[in-house]
Amino acid sequence: MAKKEKVFGYLPNDTPPFGQMVLLGFQHVLTMFPATVLVALLMGFPVPTVLLISGVGTILALLGSKLTIGKYIPLYYGSSFSYLAAVMAITQTPFGVEADPKLLSVVQAGFVATGLINIIVGVLIRVAGGKKAIDTILPASITGPVACTIGIGLGLAALNNATGITGPTGSPQVSEFIVALLTLIITICLSVYLQGKGFIGMLPILLGAIAGYLIAIPFGLVNVTWGELLRVPTFNFPVFNDPMTLTAVVGIGVMAIATIPESTAHLYQISLYVDHLAEEQGREKYNLSQYIGLNFILDGLDDIVNGLFGSVAGTNYGENNSLMVITRNYSGPALITAGVIAILLAFVGPLADLVRSMPSAVGGGLSIYLFGVIGMQGIALMISEKVNLYDPRQLAIGAVILIVGIGGNIGFANSMIPFPVGSVFPDGLPAIAFAAVLGILINLIFVIIKPPVERKAVTK
């Protein structure tokens, strides 16, 4: 009988040799770096702080799962795009410019709220019984349109960065638009033609950013100011007594509904592949999908840490999940190593200087693509979950969310629907958050009062 070939790969509780672990950890950092840094630049948060807290939050989540269930849930936590619209409505900061710390403190209170919401959802799920409970309150007919709204609603911000328009009276700059378009085209081509080319195929955003940066140099758009070789990241703390705090808590907090289905999908995906590798190796399966409630609690813990110390609310990264599937490396200790590397990078001054010097035109070119992908992922979610758009109730939910959310976010000043509500929303209702709440309320009507007929989807 032929000897069975050993299947190589690391399961979550496996610890690779030190040299391998460092390389595998660095690869994780390279994978999360482009999106995490881009979100920080778009929102106006200091990049070193975001890198530092990303590493800390990831380590805490991994250790939390190991201490709770005796297994690592192998996920990396980076900055989430889901909160961009709500945050940018408050900070109103140009690309790459750090926002007023007072405004960031208000935003951070909202991030703490998202953490508490995730923890509450996690506890309820552990009591109520898994994904079915989520699907009743937050079906794909809500979360899909909300994701679309977040992405498409940011279209104006992306185009402003791409054209160099810095305010209501700003003028478009031809040179910046050329750089943005070239960055966009190069990044799209890299993301398409590098597919299936191994590790480099996971870096189209980073490579596109580098290409755009180099293109911007002869246009005179790059200006690097070098500081210290080593620097200590700055920390900012939330405020809960500012007049805008309650607005931020509600407006940002409700956006947690966009990360809940995303986090669920990531856990189910990684659980499937971990168990497949375990089966191939003849070892015990991990069955990580049963810990969906714990996963939300850990997500919430990460958001609270970010909110308390001056970073961006996060989510577990699908990019790093894909990396693990490709490399068959699900090692929790390797992810902890990645967190340590991210922390160390936060203290490297030249890195922060280079990142901060990235022209807004480059960020605009990347944003056109990334924001559009967020919107398209909302459509993909509805397709994968078989949302029946021939059914009037599901059609109505999506229609209301899209029109109120996108129209309000782009059409009104500061993305606020101009109806002040006391001290809670003194400047009006945050458009995307209000749209999401409307969708939830309409869905609850149909959950409580069952419609007599559901129109079936047309099938060929």
Give an overview of the whole structure.
- With 460 residues, this protein is mostly helical.
- It has one domain.
- The protein has 18 helices and 4 strands.
- Strands 1-2 form a two-stranded antiparallel sheet. Strands 3-4 form a two-stranded antiparallel sheet.
- Helix 7 packs antiparallel against helix 16 and helix 11 runs parallel beside helix 13.
- The chain starts with 17 loop residues before the first helix and ends in a 12-residue tail after the last helix.
- The model has no long low-confidence stretch (mean pLDDT 86).
Q: Could you state the order of secondary-structure elements as H and E?
A: HHEHHHHHHHHHHEHHHHHEEH
The average pLDDT score comes to 86
What strand order characterises the main sheet? Answer: 1-2
Protein structure class? mainly alpha
Low-confidence stretches: none
Strand fraction: under 5%
Q: C-alpha Rg, in Å?
A: 22 Å
- Which oligomeric state applies? single chain
Q: How helix-rich are the residues, as a percent range?
A: 55-70%
Basic shape: globular
Largest sheet features: 2 strands, antiparallel
What's the structural domain tally? 1
